[in-house]
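Contributing new records

If you add data, match the layout below exactly. Sequence lines come first and carry their own label; structure lines follow with theirs. Keep one chain per record. Anything else will be rejected by the validation script.
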Amino acid sequence: MRVLKNNGIETITGHAQFVDQHTLEIGQQTIEAQNVIIATGLRPRILDIKGKDFLQTSNEFLDLDEMPESITILGGGYVAFELAGIASSAGAKVTLIHHNNRPLKAFPEKLVQTLCDQLSENGVEIILDQEITEIQKDSASYRVIGNDFDKKTDMVFAAVGRIANVDQLGLDQIGVEYSSKGVKVNEHLQSDVSHFYAVGDSAASPVPKLTPVAGFEANYVVDQILGDHKEISYPLVPTIIFSLPKLSQVGVTSQQAEEDTDRYQVKTVNMEEWITYKRQHEKQPLVQLVTDKRQDKVVGAVCLSMEADEMINYLSLLIKHGYSAKDIGETPFNYPTIASDIQYLY
């Protein structure tokens, strides 16, 4: 708040609702604006099942004073796997339940399976193809119930996606179209009402909902309002799951590569015997590279290791600037480091 105030930005606390296309009401206060930027974030989605009031979310998880002896996590996406890793590290007995057999479907299946195997080795029970229909509360615990399934646990967390916080702003009455994914926007991040913009988690834009993306979109919209009317062009956006180990991805995916095998080649490298990983006793650290055969350049990468966040940042730069294997080979790095490993990948 101090930073905002020091930059001349007024902060008003309360529930906001639009009364017309230029007027916003916050409690008893009314303000008018020539341009509006909606950046109201996301909230966790709750499963619509019997006993849903007993479900908690990542919000409550991160507010825990101490970790319970056992927890059950419903979901198969980023948040579910991150919470599972945190809880397991804290000593809890963790069960992760997903309704189908393909968790983390945006990532290559082989690397996802390796992640699941490593979590299982760390004590996380992963149950796939299990639909949960009810949560019941016992005296001091809960029961997670599905078809031919009944599990007792200390706490149950829903990690089944998130909903954009745009449905209670009064957008219906001013002609701004939206869905659970956010405000519908065009290539200028404008809504149906041209002076209404949406960024980050609040925009139904075709990019991952990540902090760096929100900042990029915010800067873009400010430039739009100030008169720069070019369409938005997104840079390479890496994504990551901070689990045990980390799983990160950037660029052309293996799924996209498999749809055009004449152009792309996919290879997977096991780095278990490399000194960077051997000295830390990492099991099956993997990198998967997608190469454009026409240009002989890497255009996509996936990393699975405890150093995946650092490795993917290096690879993002190399992909963005079109480095070839020859370029990498002619570039000396400190050894042994994550950076020096890259020349062995290309």
